[in-house]
Design a protein that fits this description.
single chain; alpha/beta; eight-stranded mixed β-sheet; seven-stranded mixed β-sheet; 21 strands; about 10% strand; globular
């Protein structure tokens, strides 16, 4: 707001003196919205603190300065700038007004704020102004916005004059001209293609952040990713539109009238939109094939149940930011031949290929459309960028002479306007609330925030795009020896590197490794004594674990992490051994052991429930119901019989050992089960059974010497921790499961460290034994490392910790 001295000529009925203390500031940033005139008016509002200080100014003995530099209200900073307020950097939320104008782009029905996100912004402290009718296309009424706390503006100009303006589409130059100097625009901008818009925004001296420029590979930016949210709906809607035009079922059927084979769908481009199309078509019963130039897409396609198509030429089309790059002509020719062959077989072709800053590549040529069957359908999701299919007409549906229906709608998100607006608004609101300092509720543009800096296109009218490349750590300085190497030596070294290694070298390396293994065997055997059995168990476990885990499907890595995380909750066994000796005898050690058992129990129960919820994400509507819960029945029965034998003194040492061995085999079987989707649920059931038997095998030998109170306490701590874990895992949102896996894993590390420390405190004399000492130090170190690393991972996934890499000093020495 530009303020002159004349706007402040009367305060409390008197003339304002132009003399102030050098540090006295009264920057006026408040604005009032006049409902009667429906426009904003800059009304001068004298702060109470400055007014109450006027009488005291008369008695000040300090020298007064009447220069314009000291009269801060006579030259208040423009609104929207990062002026320093009394609370710190930027502007407080309650002085920021967010504007939501109506979208004017052809066929656009979405709105960038819903009543729910308006309420979220209001609760944070922002003022919100919504243009009347802005949400009508998405079925959000003006009354709903008013109930959420928004003020309704009758004209677009009122919404565009706000401090922060949110928009679904890039504004027109006329709309950009309505923005005030210093305001902030958050919308898609496509800066490489919208030069005229950027020039207009420059002249307005605004801050412009492009939602399409947010770094998509940044983990915390997933909550801001409007492109993925929109593409997800676009892919879904493409299949619905195609199914509406296709004159047959997508799913196959077997009736007395005849058999109908399922429709065949080809999806070109397995990005977010392509994967959504694959999933939707598969759920509707179609046979889905997909092609993508990025090899990493193969696993994603197959995890959705699609068939991944390839060409004979090996070439990686992975580009920056998750997009594809332009391929060689040889690859393109093979690609065209593949598409033509598929076009003759498929009933529906959906294309999604885009290259940032370029026209969409032509993938389905006229000759491919000509060989398609009558009644077939093509849907081009790249129609707005020129289209991937030769017959595409933007925003039209045409029928070719051979009876192929070609759809080129560019408004597919608006055909699910309510859901599209909800997801888009959630992304934008998350981004807005992440800017500046959310804890202090202050808004400003922070260049240290990777998401904000990546999205920043203009700052106060100055071009800030593209963002600078991330700073790479400098290479380590050469050592003195490296500096003294002569040129001849370097040339000789290069020649040696270029020469092929001798044929015998691999065998010699293998023989040396085998010799080292023999030496380690003899060294450990000479001093291991009783620990030889433990070393054997450890070595065999490493070998088995390597081969079992290496066979797990990449699509199931997250459930695998959750299962192994739950199994690692067997850190509770050490705590139970300490807790079994009683609270009174162990004192503080017992409390530490109880904490270890409770933390491990939270991880065990919550981990297996999380795994089940993750596997539910892979379920299809036509999948049969799951009955893996039946595996718990024999497990509970076996534990009951084992407990009865133990209480009656019939359980032998051999029985305890065999139960422990069965527990280990079941845990290994759990990891094996995660090798494929067909056996993943079985693996989860085996894992929970194995951990339950492990706890029973640990407790059983101690039961005869335990008091009833100690036994009750152990059961109470286990049950309490397990209940907490189940409640947390059941209530967390499905999108937050990866963060919860990291959080639970930190509990395992903390439990291991606490158990090791408690073990040392309980048996200090045993610490003189080398094996016990190594176990204590290793448990404490590895547990602490796991705890801190998992907490940092949780913070990064949740957005609490910046995702950029941290270069620790002397890290290359580790």
């Amino acid at each position: 707001m530009k303020t002159t001295a004349t706007t402040m000529h009367a305060v409390r009925g008197g003339a304002v003196r132009s003399c102030l203390l050098p540090r006295a500031k009264a920057v006026v940033t408040r604005r009032r919205y006049h409902a009667a005139t429906q426009h904003y008016s800059p009304i001068a509002a004298w702060p109470k603190r400055a007014t109450s200080a006027l009488p005291r100014l008369k008695g000040m003995k300090k020298k007064m300065h009447a220069t314009t530099e000291d009269v801060s209200w006579a030259r208040a900073a423009p609104e929207g700038e990062d002026e320093e307020d009394e609370g710190g950097r930027g502007s407080p939320y309650n002085k920021i007004t967010v504007g939501i104008p109506t979208e004017t782009f052809d066929l656009e029905k979405r709105v960038c704020a819903t009543p729910d996100t308006v309420a979220k912004l209001k609760s944070a402290g922002f003022n919100v102004v919504v243009q009347k009718g802005a949400g009508v296309g998405s079925d959000f009424s003006d009354e709903a916005y008013e109930s959420a706390g928004a003020e309704m503006a009758s004209s677009a100009a009122d919404a565009w004059k706000c401090d922060v303006v949110l928009h679904v589409r890039a504004p027109t130059t006329a709309e950009a001209g309505k923005m005030k100097e210093g305001a902030t625009l958050i919308s898609p901008l496509q800066p490489a293609q919208n030069e005229a818009l950027l020039e207009k925004l420059k002249s307005q001296k605004v801050n412009a952040l492009g939602l399409d420029c947010i770094p998509r590979m940044l983990s915390r930016a997933q909550a801001f990713d409007t492109l993925s949210s929109t593409a997800n709906i676009t892919g879904y809607r493409a299949v619905i539109e195609a199914a509406n035009e296709l004159p047959r079922f997508l799913a196959g059927s077997f009736t007395m009238a005849g058999n109908v084979p399922p429709a065949k769908v080809l999806v070109v481009g397995a990005g977010v939109a392509g994967l959504a199309a694959i999933q939707t078509a598969k759920n509707l019963g179609a046979v889905v094939r997909a092609f993508d130039v990025r090899p990493a897409a193969r696993e994603q396609v197959e995890s959705m149940g699609g068939e991944y198509l390839t060409v004979d030429i090996e070439e990686d089309g992975s580009g920056a930011g998750g997009y594809a790059k332009e391929m060689s002509q040889e690859f393109i020719d093979a690609e065209m031949a593949l598409f033509k062959a598929q076009a003759a077989e498929c009933d529906i072709i959906i294309t999604t290929a885009l290259i940032p800053g370029r026209a969409a590549p032509k993938l389905i040529l006229q000759e491919a459309v000509d060989v398609m069957k009558p009644g077939s359908v093509t849907v081009d999701l790249a129609a707005e960028a020129g289209g991937n299919i030769a017959t595409t007409v933007r925003d039209k549906k045409i029928v070719t002479p051979n009876g192929v229906t070609c759809i080129g709608y560019s408004d597919l998100p608006s055909r699910c306007a309510g859901m599209s607006s909800t997801l888009f608004a959630n992304n934008v609101t998350n981004f807005l609330l992440s800017m500046g300092d959310p804890k202090e509720k202050r808004f400003y543009i922070d260049h240290k925030d990777e998401a904000v800096r990546g999205a920043l296109v203009l700052e106060k009218g100055e071009m800030m795009w593209p963002p600078p490349e991330p700073v790479k750590p400098p290479p380590p300085p050469p050592t003195e020896k490296e500096n003294l190497v002569s040129k001849d030596a370097l040339e000789q070294e290069e020649e040696e590197e270029e020469a092929e290694p001798p044929v015998w070298l691999p065998a010699a390396k293998g023989a040396l490794m085998l010799a080292a293994a023999y030496a380690a065997t003899l060294a450990l055997g000479s001093g291991a004594g009783v620990g030889a059995g433990l070393i054997s168990t450890f070595a065999l476990s490493c070998v088995i674990g390597y081969f079992v885990v290496s066979g797990v499907s990449p699509a199931l890595h997250s459930p695998l992490m959750s299962v192994t995380n739950a199994i690692s909750g067997t850190t509770a066994l050490g705590g139970l051994a300490l807790l079994s000796q009683g609270w009174y005898q162990m004192g503080v050690v017992a409390y530490a052991a109880a904490a270890s058992v409770a933390l491990s129990a939270i991880n065990i129960a919550g981990g297996f429930l999380m795994t089940g919820r993750m596997l539910d994400m892979f379920r299809r509507p036509d999948d049969p119901p799951s009955y893996e819960w039946m595996y718990s029945l024999p497990t509970l029965g076996a534990i009951a019989v084992y407990a009865w034998l133990t209480v009656n003194g019939a359980a032998t040492a051999g029985m305890h050992a065999m139960v422990g061995l069965t527990s280990a085999c079941l845990c290994i079987g759990a990891i094996w089960g995660l090798s494929s989707q067909e056996t993943a649920r079985l693996g989860n059931a085996l894992g929970s059974s194995g951990v339950a038997l492990g706890v029973a095998a640990t407790m059983a030998p101690m039961v005869p010497t335990m008091s009833a109170i100690a036994l009750r306490d152990c059961a109470a701590v286990l049950a309490g921790g397990g209940a907490v874990g189940l409640i947390i895992a059941a209530r967390v949102a499905i999108t937050d499961l990866p963060q919860l896996v990291a959080a639970f894993h930190s509990l395992v590390g903390l439990a291991a460290a606490v158990t090791s420390i408690a073990s040392f405190a309980a048996h200090p004399a045993a610490a003189s034994d080398l094996g016990h000492k190594v176990a204590i130090w290793a448990g404490t170190f590895i547990g602490s490392l796991t705890f801190t690393g998992s907490i940092v991972a949780f913070g990064k996934l949740s957005g609490f910790v910046p995702s950029k890499s941290v270069a620790l000093p002397m890290k290359n020495l580790v």
